[in-house]
Specification:
The protein is an alpha/beta fold and 686 residues long. Among the domains are: 88 residues, Ubiquitin-like (UB roll) (Roll); 206 residues, Rossmann fold (3-Layer(aba) Sandwich); 130 residues, Dimethylsulfoxide Reductase, domain 2 (3-Layer(aba) Sandwich). Helices cover 26% and strands 17% of the residues. The chain has 20 helices and 28 strands. It has a 7-stranded mixed sheet. Strands 2-1-5-3-4 form a 5-stranded mixed sheet, sandwiched between helices. Helix 8 runs parallel beside helix 17 and helix 8 crosses helix 18. The protein is globular and about 90 Å long. The chain starts with a strand and ends with a helix.
């Protein structure tokens, strides 16, 4: 490890460090525009110049490797003058339109110009103008502001794996463009807005809406997939204006999927803001007392076996705990959280969670995907898989399921169960490659469990993992990738049919007399029995509300404090950013009031007491933010016959990435993505 001296301080740094990293290790701030920790080095902007003794001129520290005995000066007069010159060049053609730029207040160029630039310029010629580029309904461009840092180009090519941006021409005439004028097809395209150090790329839906200092910032969790991406909700008054990612290296690094970022305009549309009652076949507005009295009048006297509850994909753990306790008080064991009909083996946590952990992907050297499309079901996790493929020589992947562009090279082994069963043969070419790998991993998607032979599929995948060395004392390569934010939390709470309880299929067609839907909209509500009394508790007028006899307006994820468990079993907390609209209330509070009306008052009156109850139900809820990574300790295998896997093809999780839940279906921005990105590509393919 070389020793270097930075502004008189001698430090030792790892081999391969750049001068910029060494300076930061010594606590020195180095300005930069093109350099980013998670992107390749470009060396475009030259803003990171430092002075290195025995070198004739200042060097770009981002691309200069450290050497033994280097003496570095980060704030000498030569360095200051060089940075002033670089800033002067960068501003030659910049329009200086800060008053009308959405980047104002959080612009790197503003900050660096103030800290390292001159107070005047020697250039008074005409500034160049660049035509704005069309990048789709999400990203707005003002390319005259572009300083050619190429962060957006490198992100799209390296992280997103969709190289749709690049540069044309040279020197002063260089332009960043998408070559063919069409919307960006990556599910991670919004991250280039965060990466852009100037106002060249900004959020199109957020344009001219607010300044950063007007916003109230709240930490939360993204609920549009099961990754558990850490986000920051920016609100003004009673309205959520934007969502940005928070840094968490163990989960999402600093990326956020487009649906979580841009579908928030759906929070303002089709909202349920008052209770409703169905009378003579029509819904009418009602008071809370009327709605709860109607529920109590219908449920009172009904046997618990004729009452059922279904939890939706966006539910927080608190509301599911309260609903489970209420159903238990009413004598019902008819509970289900699996709207897709998936069948999981819950006898052990390792049979239904992402055991490798998201961070553990960085150690894998082989991958088998079964019945999943991580690019659409978990874009941020897929970016991590791609990074591992890029950085690891010899990394290989295989896919059993519907063909998909995963953004990294993989071998498509087949679409159906026959391809999966073939991997049980130790002489299969892909099985042999998995067995030869040091850290192989397997990812099973939820569609693999939404089949009649789900238990056989699980047993088959487990057997493949066992015989290829994925299950050892210091490595657990078997993973289940969920796509619903509420799914793992529900499984941890046991929100499943109890003894003699009915699953979602059993509750259909008159299987129960009363059905409580907690934000459940992702199943065929037409299958509910005509005489079944339906209570819908949720925040959007979606499929479930259309069938309901009583509607109880709940709170969306931005409007309540809630606990969510991601696909790897990590318990995380979201905070309330705004209050629910109108007469809507937090879901656990609604259930507490309903229990009192039913004469079965739940034993908690505040959130802290409810969370204590959750810890009693499962101790993992007491380990917020933490995750204990485990290897395979042996034990029984999942119950199922691996040989019974049918040859039927594995399905797709959803028809389109942009509309998968009540919020995104209500979002005009997501509808534009369908219209301007999906439909044109489908027409071109035809």
């Amino acid at each position: 490890m070389p020793k270097v001296t930075v502004d008189g301080l001698e430090i030792e740094v790892p081999n391969g460090y750049t001068v910029l990293q060494a300076c930061e290790e010594a606590g020195k701030e180095i300005p930069r525009f093109c350099y980013h920790e998670r992107l390749s080095i470009a060396g475009n902007c030259r803003m990171c110049l430092v002075e290195v003794e025995k070198m004739p001129k200042p060097v770009a520290s981002c691309g200069q490797p450290v050497g033994e005995g280097m003496v570095i000066h980060t704030d000498s007069e030569k360095v200051r003058e060089a940075r002033r010159g670089v800033m002067e060049f960068l501003l030659i053609n910049h329009p200086l339109d800060c008053p009308i730029c959405d980047q104002g207040g959080e612009c790197d160029l503003q900050d660096e110009a103030m800290g390292y630039g001159r107070d005047h310029t020697r250039y008074d010629g005409n500034k160049r103008a660049v035509t704005d580029k069309y990048l789709g309904p999400l990203v707005k461009t003002v390319m005259t502001r572009c300083i050619h840092c190429t962060r957006c180009v490198r992100f799209m090519a390296e992280v997103a794996g969709v190289p749709e941006l690049g540069a044309v021409q040279r020197g002063e005439h260089m332009e960043i463009t998408n070559y063919v004028e069409r919307g960006l097809s990556s599910e991670l395209s919004g991250n280039i807005i965060d990466l852009c150090p100037v106002g060249a790329l900004t959020s199109k839906p957020y344009a001219f809406t607010a300044r950063t200092w007007e916003l109230r910032k709240t930490d939360s969790i993204d609920v549009f997939d099961a990754v558990g991406t850490n986000i920051r909700i920016d609100a003004r008054g009673s309205e959520v204006l934007r969502v940005l990612p928070r840094l968490n290296d163990a989960v999402n690094e600093e990326w956020l999927a487009d649906k979580g970022r841009f579908s928030i305009d759906g929070l303002k549309r089709r909202r349920l803001d008052r209770p409703w009652l169905r009378e003579a076949g029509k819904l009418r507005p009602a008071s809370w007392d009327e709605a709860l009295a109607a529920i109590a009048g219908r449920i009172r006297g009904i046997d618990g076996s004729r009452i059922g509850a279904i939890a939706g994909n966006l539910c927080d753990a608190e509301s599911m705990m309260a609903l489970k306790d209420l159903m238990g008080a009413l004598g019902s064991t008819n509970l289900d959280c699996r709207q897709d009909g998936a069948v999981f083996d819950v006898s052990s946590r390792e049979f239904h969670r992402f055991n490798t952990t998201i961070e553990g992907i960085d150690e894998a050297d082989a991958l088998l995907i079964v019945g999943a499309n991580p690019r659409q079901e978990a874009p941020v996790l897929n970016a991590r898989l791609r990074r591992r493929w890029v950085e690891t020589p010899g990394f290989f992947a295989g896919l059993v399921g519907a063909p998909a562009d995963l953004t990294y090279e993989h071998e498509h082994l087949g679409e159906g169960g026959d391809a999966l069963k073939a991997l049980l043969d130790p002489e299969h070419h892909f099985t042999k490659r998995l067995a030869a790998a040091k850290r192989p991993m397997l990812i099973v998607g939820p569609q693999a469990f939404a089949r009649p032979d789900a238990k056989a599929v699980l047993a088959c995948c487990w057997q493949i993992a066992l015989q290829t060395g994925m299950l050892i004392a210091d490595w657990h390569g078997f993973n289940v990738l969920h796509n619903a934010a509420a799914r793992m939390g529900a499984l941890e709470l046991g929100f499943l049919p109890g003894e003699n309880g009915k699953d979602i299929a059993g509750m259909m067609g008159g299987g129960v007399d009363v059905l409580w839907l907690l934000g459940a909209d992702e199943f065929d509500v037409s299958q509910i029995g005509a005489d079944t009394f339906v209570i819908y508790q949720g925040h959007h007028g979606d499929r479930g509300a259309a069938r309901a006899d009583v509607i109880l307006p709940g709170a969306a994820y931005t409007e309540k404090s809630g606990t969510y468990v991601n696909t790897e079993g990590r318990v995380q907390r979201a905070l309330r950013a705004i209050f629910p609209p109108g007469e809507a209330r937090e879901d656990w509070a609604i259930l507490r009031a309903a229990s009192a009306a039913l004469g079965q008052a739940l034993p908690y009156d505040d959130l802290d007491t409810l969370r204590t109850r959750m810890v009693e139900a499962n101790p993992v809820f007491g380990e917020t933010g933490a995750l204990r990574r485990i290897g395979h300790a042996g034990g029984e295998a999942p119950r199922g016959d691996a040989a019974a896997v049918s040859d039927a093809p594995f399905g797709r999780a959803f028809a389109t990435y942009y509309q998968t839940d009540p919020i995104s279906r209500a979002s005009p921005t997501m509808a534009k993505c369908i219209e301007e990105i999906i439909l044109p590509r489908q027409m071109a393919a035809e």
